[in-house]
Amino acid sequence: MENSSESPAEPKKGKAKAPRKQKESSLKQKSPAEFFAENKNIAGFDNPGKCLYTTVRELVENSLDSAESISELPVVEVTIEEIGKSKFNSMIGLVDRERVDAALYDDYESAKAREKRLAKEARAQEIYAKNASLGKKVKEHQPSKGMKGRGEASFYRVTCKDNGRGMQHDDIPDMFGRVLSGTKYGLRQTRGKFGLGAKMALIWSKMSTGLPIDISSSMKGQNYTSFCRLDIDIHRNIPHIHVHEKRDDKERWHGAEIQVVIEGNWTTYRSKILHYMRQMAVITPYAQFLFKFVSDVPDKNVTIRFARRTDVMPPVPLETKHHPSSVDLLLIKRLITETSKQNLLQFLQHEFVNIGKPYAERLIGEMGPDFDPKMAVKSLTSQQIVRIHQLFRQAKFDDPSGDCLSPAGEYNLRLGIIKELHPDMVATYSGSAQVFEGHPFIVEAGVSVGGKDVKQGLNIFRFANRIPLLFEQGADVVTRTALKRINWNSYKINQTQDKIGVFVSIVSTKIPFKGTGKEYIGDDITEIASAVKSAVQQCCIQLKAKIVKKMQAREQQERKRNLTRYIPDATNAIYDVLKETAQLHKTKKKRFENEDAELLGKVSARLITKETLIEKLSQHVEQVDYEMALEYATQSGVSEEPRESTFLQSLEAEDYSIDLHNPTFVFRLFC
What is the model's pTM? Predict the structure, then answer.
């Protein structure tokens, strides 16, 4: 025992132990496609119904972007075809099979449960018959449906066709089969929220049906159509191509047609999808939409055409450079890696907005003795980059301009509201460019009163980068502003009884969405909240002037009706006085001279009668009403004559014209 600590113990005789294997690393990696497949709610794919809605939305927005990028008036056709269980099984090569063990299924109804359900239905039918015999108004009893199993999914084929730019033949697989690859990345105003587009629809299709996506595309000047059928390898984030070929294009069509089969729920999300299409028609009146829902049951079929109202399109959004106050350390390092400029002075001048040469030299001088205008930008150390970032946060810079933004425009917003809502009156306003955290933004607003298919009270329509926002409305800056910060009564608008439409569109290089689904804009950014309030107030001021004039015109009509109503009584009273006075004048008890005598003589000779007085009083009321109406029209600057809507047809290629824009009209001069 004593020596055991000094000398090692002798090894036991026998079989030697094998060396232990080193533990394998537990570190795992996920591809972007796998991440979004597991967290599909982030991209708006929460449940089958929302998946159907988001798929339609992504395809429509891609189509609009594609057409607008080549200044083509968009024509978008969307078809949702309902696919029954048998048809779906035949599509995937699965044979329908009758149930063998019925009790195994979730929708199985035992004999006891069925007996209980039928007894309940019989009691309800008895109560209905009793109430009907007593003459009470009751709803007809609907027999309850059998249980529906969780596995009874509904499938739909979604097709979207457009007349846009189309896609390069070789780029199609990566554009649809590789997540986080696309053409919309960069600092500019874009419709997309994540840059996923149809890729997420393909991932959902693979998860719910296992079927691939079909893409047909053709570009201007091509004599062929590219056809590609593919799905995605989610674990490796690469496309799995089934078919990729060129086909003859005899029609010389250009654009894209995308077809995908997914699980969905039309019943619960029907109103949301139609509401989305209607709002998209409001914000893009220069586009033509055709929406179809096709079912085996003819009564469920839906066809809606949203016609084009104008051919005036907003300008294409431009890519811009970063503002110094909006960058972080990581972005500065990336810009240094990607820049083609050699020295620090050129880097500051050309990679950021609002930094000219003199100001760049002043900034470099402020950075310290370790910095020199001609030093190689790629030789900057981490400490020097931190110093640049600190100075960017503390220095003063001019605000970025809004030239890179593409708002819908007052003209288009007004046309869209009138086209879809047919309001009694509407006012629009477009604010100037403002800035938050170094990003420019523009707020446009429209307020309407009256209209068809508009509920009483506030009806709020929200748009971000010209796409409708339909979910999580309560926390949005537009909703809170309309409900809490606008005193509608002060503008002669009744918030609860009038049919009020509030339209607010915000465009920016960076929309400050809140929440994982990016469905609303937070109320915590002071610059945006104040700009929204100001824009809505400007619309209300315009409406107040119109409402006051309308009230004055109504009061004027009421006065005319009142005067006309009292003409017979006034005539009788005046004529009786004239007759009595004429008798006095005739008996010489009271003498009148000149015009008075002449008037009384006419009364005695019955040249002036009650009918004469009625006619003269009516003419006087009409004259006064005309003069007041003329004064009203002069003050308001508008004519109350019936007006007809006008529409300028699309220009031919050889025509040349100049458009002069105004919030309420566009004057087109043909040359």
Answer: 0.76
